[in-house]
Amino acid sequence: MTRIHDMGGRFGDGPVTPEPEGARVFAEAWHARALALTLASGSLGQWTLDRSRHARERLAPADYATFTYYEKWVAALTDLLVETETITRAELEGGETALSPLAGKRLASDTVPDVLSKGAPTDRRGPPPAFAVGDAVATRRPPRNDRITGGHTRLPAYASGHIGNVIASHGSHVFPDTNAHALGEGPEPLYTVAFSARDLWGPDATQGDEVMLDLWQSYLKPA
Q1: Cβ of 98: how many Cβ atoms within 10 Å?
Q2: According to CATH, what is the number of the domain 29-118?
């Protein structure tokens, strides 16, 4: 099944128009509020980063195709808040609210710089790497989550079934395909793999250009 969000290499979606140098970080004031609300809600610990990505992917195709970037963020966040019972539908619709049991986890404004500077490292103990730098590897086909039908995966469709070369090995990291679905972190070795741009995009790509992708071990097999 084609995933509506997996747009890399797809034709017919129009040109990519870079923002002019010096453009504002946020085109509209509410964009900054949308980002702040998403980060603050995530700090409550009710979902993982991978689950939040999957929430955006699960938006109705008609909405995904027409919503702007931050509209997608707000819509997905709303779904997560209700799904996790962080808020009720009545509260969402402007009804009476009660003090949340999660109030103690709120992200206070004076703690934001420290919290964001720490980030959320994803490196974990995991199995030994099956590939070494310099190895030729092939990405699996089809590019789907092999544990959950229609589930989250970080293997893009445009790279599926292609051969590349491992150029870096990063140790084991949280595996998005399980972490997005409450199946555990399932850490796997993570690699950077280089692909010929012409192999991926065809003869219109510049000769000698490469595309670098960070890919988990179960996405790969020996070429």
Answers
A1: 7
A2: 1.10.472.20
